[in-house]
Amino acid sequence: MIDIVDEAPAHVGAREVLLDLSFGPDRFAKTSERLREGRLPAFAYSALDQAGALVGTVRLWNVADETGRNALLLGPLAVETRCRSQKVGERLMRHATNQAAMAGFGAIILVGDHVYYQRFGFNPGLIDNLTLPGPVERERFLALELKAGHLAGFAGCLLPTGAADLAQQVGVPLTLDVFETAA
């Protein structure tokens, strides 16, 4: 049995290992990372196996177009290889999109494989007037409207918004020890 839960500080180390294994050493060079760095996620979910070990992760980040219209940026989504046949990625995606919709967000944007993400309703044509702060393959730049028409008129370069990650900005390592000593 796999449970989808809110990400906890105890998941961070395993999450980083999973992301390194899934995306390799160049993951911090990706254009989407420019929208995540120095920020806290709006939503963060972990998939845990029966033993409580992290086997999947997904996060959503606050972003806006140049006029200040808000959306969420999804990513990264990663699932441990041994669990991929158990639809963990699908469950994480459905949970994340449902939570975003229930919280009142109008759209989710991501950079990813259209063949995979189209089952959740993501399409490339909704954000033709948007760019990212770096190169992106246009066919991988996808969006899902949670509210019909929300992305109409979105234009310019997508910008990071949301809460700043103060621990990251001052170089404090994000580990369980930080949370234990701060309490």
From TrEMBL:
What is the organism of origin for this protein? Roseibium polysiphoniae
Annotated InterPro entries:
Acyl_CoA_acyltransferase, GNAT_dom
- Domain N-acetyltransferase per the UniProt entry, residue ranges: 2-143
Q: Which GO terms describe its molecular function?
A: acyltransferase activity, transferring groups other than amino-acyl groups
Q: Pfam families recorded for this chain? A: Acetyltransf_7
This one is known as: N-acetyltransferase
